[in-house]
Every structure is written in structure tokens, then in C-alpha cells.
TrEMBL record:
Catalysed reaction, written as an equation: RX + glutathione = an S-substituted glutathione + a halide anion + H(+)
Protein name: glutathione transferase
Domain GST C-terminal: 171-302
UniProt cross-references to InterPro entries, sorted A to Z: Glutathione-S-Trfase_C-like (IPR010987), Glutathione-S-Trfase_C_sf (IPR036282), Glutathione_S-Trfase (IPR040079), Glutathione_S-Trfase_N (IPR004045), GST_Zeta (IPR005955), GST_Zeta_C (IPR034330), GST_Zeta_N (IPR034333), Thioredoxin-like_sf (IPR036249)
Domain GST N-terminal: 85-166
Listed GO biological process terms: toxin catabolic process
Family (UniProt): Belongs to the GST superfamily. Zeta family.
Keywords: Transferase
């Protein structure tokens, strides 16, 4: 199979009207340690290749804007003449691990080149991508001669290399809580609903457990996070500023509700997870979060 990463820096050449079908990936499901769930595969004849650049706007937000898009998200015309950004992000639109990194880059106002890896076509297994990450996971961030995989490692790197708009508070206690919340999501919740694991559960225990298993582990993790954040949460997870905990929590909450039917009771007075619900609602109002949404990425299903 020919390698065809979507190089998002200049002009768009994706075909319109291409037939899109849903398919469950037979392998590579834990790309980026992320359970993608349902994959979206393009039918034959879909060119699938566009060029886009994601850059900071006048307020320092890392957004891309589209001509004629009322939401103001993507604009290949504006970006065609812009200087190539230093950072390159290899991403898949539905990956929540990639979503965290997009959100963080936007919060820090960092411009970056978006290169989509078509997981449905197995581009994560090509020799070219294996040089970037032998585990065949997204996201991968390239910063000059530095290549990083794993969203947690990427965010810690960004925090040290680009300290503007800090994602970790100065207070040692709040800093520790942010790191712990991020770790709970990345090591105690998300790996337990990887697609490869869900396939195994389905084979051994039946289809009913395929949904019951992730719901149980997600809710257990969410209850732990509620207890962890109960004395420090305000507008966001650890106060009135967006920090690393929020960057990990918001995509995970969205995935839990949409993909695994975990009842978050959004916009209701009562919730099983009131702190997490409030954190998500606050993040959802941010322009930087809206720009990082899966369906607003250049490689998203159209």
C-alpha cells in the first residue's frame, strides 16, 4: 500500500461526494493507546489528500479557518501563503489521544502542521510511519529533530519547551492533582476500552459485555476523579484556569458519553458525575476546544 499521509499545510485536494463507509479496523485499533471504536474508511476513488496549516490567530489561539465556514474553523486559502510551522502533528481525527494534543496546542497558541494518518487504510503500519513510532500509535509530534509519541509525553514536552499559557499550575499541590488526573485518564481509564481489548471481551464473553466492560471501568475511573477533584474544582478541574487535567478530561468525557453511552446528564441539575460534567461544559465553551473537536479536523468524515 502506498503511504499517503494527509499533509495539512497548503491547498486542499480532497474530492467531494466520495462515498464513506463505516468499518471496524481489523488491526491497529490501539493507535495512540486510543480506542477509536468505529473507523471511517473512504471508498475507492476518494482522493483523501489535502493540505492544511493550523496557526495562531490574532488572540494567540491555534486555530484554522475555512472560507465560507460559519464556524470559522478551516481555511486552506489563508494558509497557502503562510510560512510552514515548526511543529508537525501526526493525528487521526477520532483519536482522543490526538484530541488532547490538539486542544493543548490550541491553548498554547502554537502553530502546527497537521498530517493525518489514515488508520482505516493502515497507514500507521507503513515503513515511513514506523520510523516515527515503532508502536504504530498516533499522536506523534515532530519538533525539529525531536520526535515524540504518547500524548502525556507530548504535553509534558510542550509544557517545558513552550511555557507560554502554562498547563501546569505553580502551586505544588494543584500541579500534582493535575498530573494525577491526567494519569488516571491515560493509564486507568482509556487503556481499558481499547478496541483490541473490546474485541477480545466480545469473543470471550459475548456482545453484551462489549459495552458493559468499558462502562464499568469508565464509571469507576470517573468516580475516582470526582473524589480527587472535589476540593479544588471550580470553573475547571483545579480552579478557574484551564490546566492539564482539563485537557485530558474533556475529550475522555466526550468519548465516554458518545461512544460508550455513559450517562453524564449534560445540562441537567443532577448528575452522577457533577464535577466532570461541569468541567466538560466549561471546556466546551472554549474556542480552542471547539477547534480541536474531531469532526472539525481536515481528515474528518464528510
Amino acid at each position: 500500500m502506498a503511504t499517503r499521509f494527509m499533509n495539512l499545510t497548503a491547498s486542499s485536494s480532497s474530492s467531494t461526494g466520495a462515498q464513506i463507509r463505516r468499518a471496524v479496523a481489523s488491526s491497529g485499533d490501539d493507535v495512540g493507546s486510543e480506542p477509536i471504536g468505529w473507523w471511517f474508511a473512504a471508498a475507492e476513488g476518494e482522493k483523501g489528500c489535502g493540505s492544511w496549516r493550523i496557526g495562531g490567530d490574532s488572540q494567540g489561539h491555534g486555530l484554522i479557518r475555512a472560507k465560507g465556514d460559519r464556524n470559522g474553523m478551516h481555511n486552506p486559502d489563508e494558509s497557502a501563503t503562510a510560512a510552514a510551522p515548526k511543529l508537525v502533528l501526526y493525528s487521526f481525527w477520532e483519536s482522543s489521544c490526538s484530541w488532547r494534543v490538539r486542544f493543548a496546542l490550541n491553548l498554547k497558541g502554537l502553530s502546527y502542521e497537521y498530517r493525518a494518518v489514515n488508520l482505516a487504510k493502515g497507514e500507521q503500519f507503513t515503513p515511513e510511519f514506523e520510523k516515527l513510532n515503532p508502536l504504530h500509535y498516533v499522536p506523534v509530534l515532530v519538533d525539529g529533530d525531536i520526535i515524540l509519541s504518547d500524548s502525556f509525553a507530548i504535553l509534558l514536552y510542550l509544557e517545558e519547551k513552550y511555557p507560554r499559557k502554562a498547563l501546569l499550575p505553580a502551586d505544588p499541590k494543584l500541579r500534582a492533582i493535575n498530573l494525577q488526573a491526567a494519569s488516571v485518564v491515560s493509564s486507568s481509564i482509556q487503556p481499558l476500552h481499547m478496541l483490541s481489548l473490546l474485541k477480545y471481551v466480545n469473543e470471550k464473553l459475548g456482545n453484551e459485555e462489549r459495552l458493559a466492560w468499558p462502562q464499568f471501568h469508565i464509571e469507576r475511573g470517573f468516580l475516582a476523579l470526582e473524589k480527587l477533584l472535589k476540593d479544588c474544582a471550580a470553573t475547571y478541574a483545579t480552579g478557574d484556569e484551564v490546566y492539564m487535567a482539563d485537557v485530558f478530561l474533556a475529550p475522555q468525557i466526550a468519548v465516554a458519553a458518545k461512544r460508550f453511552n455513559v450517562d453524564m446528564l449534560f445540562f441537567c441539575r443532577q448528575s452522577k458525575f457533577p464535577i466532570l460534567r461541569a468541567v466538560y461544559e466549561s471546556c466546551n465553551m472554549l474556542q480552542e476546544f471547539q477547534a480541536s473537536l474531531p469532526d472539525r479536523q481536515p481528515d474528518a468524515e464528510r
